[in-house]
Specification:
6-stranded antiparallel barrel, disordered N terminus, 27 strands, alpha+beta, single chain, Pdz3 Domain
Length: 497
């Protein structure tokens, strides 16, 4: 799995107009006019009629792209980012100072922009390039020199939701063209969609395709649900808009599955319901609190149904209930079959988890369940999920958390982080988040997720305390770190350069 984050700037190529593939249009419309699909008594449309229909379809797409394009922006990020290895994958354990491009979507006329968290990861400076528009809201025409440049706007990162791969930016501008959110529950497989963004640094581009799957788990080990589309998505499209034919935001493009690094018809977007929830939470709190009920669920298989003598051969079953959690207190039991959540029929584990996680903590969600042959309704309170270590690490400011003399980025162990890590031998210290690619400090064997508890026998509890102790050391002086790795303590020696 590759995130289309780091892009190559191609100064010689600057795409200014929105283009759609004529081949795709012709192929799609051609299906509509295959003789077997028409009633036997209906004559085939004349060639001129077909041409007129194609022209109307083209005009409709042109009008749609003209409305949507001013709501999609280009994002230029400068800062500390994961180094890309030879295979094109990010190496999260090593960070360097880089410049990259991405896309974003205006969701509020007063300058609020949604994008991917990985687009602004490690950002020191974020600039937003608006798509110039004419008075009617359509993209402005290029000037004689082929340029439509507008001055970049400095953007502030309002908040980041790493586990959802979403971030909210704010620019000082008003009266912008915002995209309305689509109703995700109405999205259908096979629906026509358009993907907007800046692939490979080519500004203001659009591609067309269909929804291949409404709720796809791209990674079996991650519960996140995505919209799968065959609309071409390439590096630089991250954070761009996936829209329906009404010009509504269906989702935000986030990743591709590809062996080559380019589009192979396997693009994924974060559903509009998740984007809308994250936007509201980030704007209000600066972070997202994902809802949980304290229960584990899994899909019912034929073997599972037979072995447990279930009344249904498919659906979602409760496999675990946290003792004393909200679900337990509300009366949910292991082996209950979920019928409806919040009034919506239960179709799969990912969709059920999506319905729960996008409920604000403190709200109450109605569950209709089947227990044996009896149907029950339970009102289960939703609580906030505890952040994990990776999520806490992602929100750190790289420059503020750099320990230059040891060449790593760190976080101070607080109660929240200690609880997330669990089973710490010493409940204090500094967590190594990532190593710096610009290594100018001491040569050590430190690695990401190591925890430094002491330097030369003296406890380490803060980043500044560690820096001060390192600054007091003389060149050539030996140092000894007490490090915890996977629950085991060890000493690590180094020499101060």
């Amino acid at each position: 799995m590759k995130y289309p984050t780091t892009v190559k700037l191609k100064d010689a190529i600057r795409e200014r107009r929105v283009r759609c593939s004529a081949a795709i249009i012709a192929a799609m419309l051609g299906v509509l006019f295959v003789a077997p699909s028409l009633p036997a008594q209906a004559p085939a449309p004349a060639v001129s009629d077909r041409g007129e229909l194609l022209s109307r379809f083209s005009d409709s797409l042109n009008e749609l792209t003209s409305r949507v394009s001013p709501s999609v922006v280009q994002i230029v990020v400068t800062g500390y980012r994961p180094i890309v290895d030879k295979s094109g994958d990010d190496t999260d354990d090593q960070i360097g100072y880089q410049k990259s491009l991405g896309s974003g979507v205006i969701v509020d006329p007063d300058g609020y922009i949604m994008t991917n968290a990985h687009v602004v990861k490690g950002a020191q400076r974020v600039l937003v390039m608006l798509t110039p528009s004419s008075g009617d809201g359509s993209p402005a025409e290029e000037d004689a020199a082929g340029g439509t440049e507008t001055p970049p706007l400095q953007a502030k990162i309002v908040g980041v939701a790493p586990t959802m791969d979403l971030a909210l930016l704010k620019v000082e501008a008003h009266g912008l063209h915002a995209l309305p959110f689509a109703d995700y529950s109405k999205l259908k497989k096979g629906e026509l969609v358009l993907a907007f963004g800046n692939p490979e640094g080519l500004e203001n581009s659009v591609t067309m395709g269909v929804v291949s799957a409404v709720a796809r788990q791209a990674d079996p080990d991650v519960s996140s649900v995505f919209i799968q589309t065959d609309a071409p998505i390439n590096p630089g499209n991250s954070g761009g808009a996936l829209v329906n034919t009404n010009g509504e935001l269906v989702g935000i493009n986030t990743l591709i599955l590809s062996e080559s690094g380019g589009s192979q018809g396997l693009g994924f977007a974060i559903p509009s319901s998740v984007v809308s929830y994250a936007y509201q939470q980030l704007r209000k709190n600066g972070h997202v609190q994902r809802g949980v009920i304290g229960a584990g669920i899994q899909d019912i298989t034929p073997d599972l149904a037979t072995g447990l003598n279930l009344a249904r051969q498919r659906g979602v079953i409760v496999a675990d209930v946290d003792p004393g959690g909200p679900a337990d207190k509300a009366g949910l039991q292991i082996q209950d079959i979920l019928l409806r959540v919040g009034g919506q029929p239960v179709e799969s584990v990912p969709m059920t988890q999506l319905a729960i996680s996008t409920q604000p903590p403190g709200s109450v969600l109605k569950f209709d369940v089947l227990r044996g042959t009896k149907q029950l309704s339970l009102d289960i309170p939703v609580k906030a999920a505890a952040p994990d270590v990776d999520e806490l690490a992602e929100v750190s400011n790289p420059e503020r958390h750099l320990v230059a003399k040891l060449g790593f980025f760190g976080l101070e162990i607080n109660d929240t982080l200690a609880n997330s890590i669990g089973d710490l031998r010493i409940p204090s210290g500094v967590l190594v988040v990532a190593m710096s690619a610009d290594q100018t400090g001491a040569d050590t064997d430190l690695a990401a997720r190591d925890i430094i508890h002491a330097l030369n026998g003296k406890p380490v509890t803060t980043l500044q305390g560690l820096r001060d102790a390192l600054n007091a050391m003389q060149p050539g002086e030996p140092g000894v770190l007490q490090v915890e790795e996977d629950g085991k303590l060890e000493y690590m020696t180094f020499e101060m350069p």
